[in-house]
Amino acid sequence: MDLLDLIDAVQSVADGVLFGATYSLLGIGFTLIFGVMHKINLSYAAASIGAAYASLLVMSVVQAPAVLAFVAAAAAGGVIGGLVYLVGFRFIPLANPLATLMSTVGLLLLIDEIIVHATDGVPLSYPALFSDVIVQVGPFGLRGDLMFVFALGCVCMVLLLLLLYRTRLGLATRAVSQQPTASLLCGISTTRVNVLTFVITGVVGGIAGAMTGAAIGMLSPLLSLPLTVKGLIVTVIGGLGSIPGAIIAGLIVGGLENAFQFFRGVSERDLYIMLLLFAFLVFRPGGIFAKSSGRD
Amino acid sequence: MRRLHAALAVLLAGSMLSLPGSALAQERTVKITGFGAKSGVVRVFGINSEAAMKAAAGEINSKGGITLGDGTKAKFAVDFLDDRCNAEEGISVVRRIASTDAFVAVGPTCSNVAESLFGILQKKVGDASDSGLQFPIIADVAAKGGLAKISEWAFRNVPSEFEMYKSLIAWVKKEHPDLKTMYGGVEKDFAHSNATYGVMKGQAEGAGLQVLGTSEWLLNDTTFSTQVRDMKRANADIVAISAHPFTTCGVLKEMARQGVKPKLLIGLTSSSSIETLQGCAKQAEGIIIPTSFAPVTPEAKLAAEQVAKFGGSADLHSAAAYEIMFILKDVIESQKIMAKPDTVQADRNKMRAGLAALKETKGLLGTVGRTADREAIKPYLYVHAKDGSWQVLHKPTL
Questions:
Q1: What letter would DSSP give residue A285?
Q2: CATH number of the domain within which B265 lies
Q3: CB B291, CB B392: distance < 8 Å
Q4: Which of A34, A10, A13 is nearest to A238 (CA)?
Q5: CA torsion sign, B278 to B283 to B285 to B290?
Q6: Region B120-140: what's the mean pLDDT?
Q7: Are residues B304 and B366 in the same domain?
Q8: Is B344 inside any structural domain?
Q9: A47 contacts A105 by C-beta, under 8 angstroms
Q10: Containing domain of residue B76, as a range?
């Protein structure tokens, strides 16, 4: 490997880490819902992409600066999150884990197909901020749009952590997550907490969808499935229910994905990511920040 | 009693008068069933094919329809079924069509469906030992090379990408002798893109261009920075991208970000569509693509207008579906197809024989040749993206 290869390798990993912020946000959504309800919401990434599409619809009606696409996506994400709870969880027997899992698989396909029917599957251009900006750091160039995406992701994560650890809603959410029966006895409405969790994760997902669209410059229904897989991998590697874990895991997966792409090519890239997932499931099932005694 | 009879007579006369014309005159209808992807990410192909078939049927019907073997006139009706670009569903859809009195089907969208589907047809006509389906199918979109060879019941009206890229590379060599090197980019997990890249690369090497390398990505990839960085390092004169609009646009946008500006950009046939311009018109500016359709003749302009009326867009794929309806009309009339429930297999045999006997057909850009292995030799031209639209760059003399 010569110097140019080394520079390219580092650059690829840096790009991957920056893009990994979108994976982190998706991972947070998955993990938060799991933390509160102990359910996996497989429709989460599709709903996030749906929210980004909805923001395009808003932008086509209202002539507004590109940054408002992110606000619109967040708002749409919140609405879709609430609807996902209503359709996929509210009236489904929660005691049966398979029932909610299947209902979210159904919702994933439903949201995907709604997007396909609304757009005929045609990819649409998504507004990117700072796409012309390249910050040169020595031989490396950092993309302005990816740095914006990364910064926005970090802001969202900080806000989410503040919400969870500095507000009454956060306290209620953590209480329901840890002791649902006890929190009921304390007068906390678990249904309300569940709805709010879906709305909040929907908002985060909407921003993640918009960030993905902005980073690629395009939106396509093709994105739902790979982002669902990435979100799940991040959730497992980060540890189910761990927000700091999801943040770090997202960045790691983003960076490693590009590293494997660089060294082993596209045909082997996903293989190594999957091997990483299995390695975590076997050797560290509690995720990055779990104590080693967490296994079994 | 007399009043009752009178009332009954009035009622009978009234009901006779209120019967639709079809019941009295019995104008016949010939249903042509198309199939392709109408859901999933390639839904737009099915939408366009259906619109094109309906537009062509409308044109034919407005000019008197078709004449059947017994001399009666009939109108075309078009039905279109969804195979979701899935081989199993494609086979299931065709078995369903073949269980009706249909004597031909038009489709599919995806090459992977066509490849499997043609495999269930009887390989050689008249082979009693082969229990394969004896049902003619003519493909409009599935573009992977040489698929009709699979069965004598399979036909295609798709352009030969081999010929188109052979001609395009030769033209590039002639017009731009200073361009010596090429770098490729391919959507590795899509049959059409992958096969066409093989053609592009082979033709480039054959024409004396030095292929410096190839970047690969997948159909639903989200980042292209590593691939484009390789492209940037190669610094080739020509970049050839064999990918569908979503990743073509993703790569073109990444190329713009990284400042990769080749002297010439070549794209995949399927990307010469409105989707590419909707996704990345600015970045696609200048990309050259060979195509078998552009609204440059009066017939092609009319077809484009009619297809748009049916909610579709005319491109090289849907134009093929439009042409197929006229081919079917000609074969129905020349083979004296009866289109009756008791002549179904005979009609299928006649349709197959008629399609196989064609030496040339009328195309929207000119005469389309037919090969012995049931493929089309379609006229083509080169278009390039300019000012947010596809414009004709060059029309080769064939």
A1: T
A2: 3.40.50.2300
A3: no
A4: A34
A5: negative
A6: 96
A7: yes
A8: yes
A9: no
A10: 26-159+296-380
Assembly ipTM: 0.83
By DSSP bridging, strand B181-187 and strand B66-67 are unpaired
A219-253 tens-digit pLDDT:
999 899 999 999 999 999 999 888 889 999 999 99
What is the domain count for chain B? 2
For residues B197 and B184, give the distance between their C-alpha atoms in angstroms, rounded to a whole number: 8
Indicate the residue of A123, A225, A261 with minimum beta-carbon distance to B226: A261
Q: What range does the domain containing A262 cover?
A: 3-294
- End-to-end CA distance of chain B, in Å? 81
Interchain contact, A124 vs B218, CB within 8 Å? no
CA distance B36 to B39: 9
**Is there a single domain that holds both residue B197 and residue B221?**
yes
Residues B320 and B276 in one domain: no
Does residue B127 lie within any of the structural domains? yes
Total tally of structural domains belonging to chain A:
1
Handedness of CA A16, A17, A23, A27 (dihedral sign): positive
Would the CB atoms of A120 and B43 count as touching at under 8 Å? yes
Q: Are B154 and B302 in the same domain?
A: yes
Asked if residue B318 belongs to a domain, the reply is yes
The maximal CA–CA distance of chain A, rounded, in angstroms, is 65
**B278 part of contact set with chain A, CB < 8 Å:** yes
C-beta neighbour count of B333 within 10 angstroms: 14
**Domain annotation covers residue B394:** no
Contact status, residue A6 vs residue A185, Cβ threshold 8 Å: no
- Beta pairing, strands A140-143 & A134-137: antiparallel
Please tell me whether residues B308 and B276 are part of one structural domain. no
Judged by a CB distance cut-off of 8 A, whether residue B40 touches chain A is yes
Write the pLDDT tens digit of every residue in A109-152. Answer: 999 999 999 998 888 989 888 877 888 888 888 888 888 888 88
Are B42 and B89 members of one domain? yes
Q: Which of B218, B250, B258 is the closest to A218 by Cβ?
A: B250
Q: Tokens for A116? A: 């396909």
Vertex B245: Cα angle to B308 and A130 (nearest 5): 115
Tallying the residues shown for chain A, one arrives at 296
CATH classification of the domain holding A66 = 1.10.3470
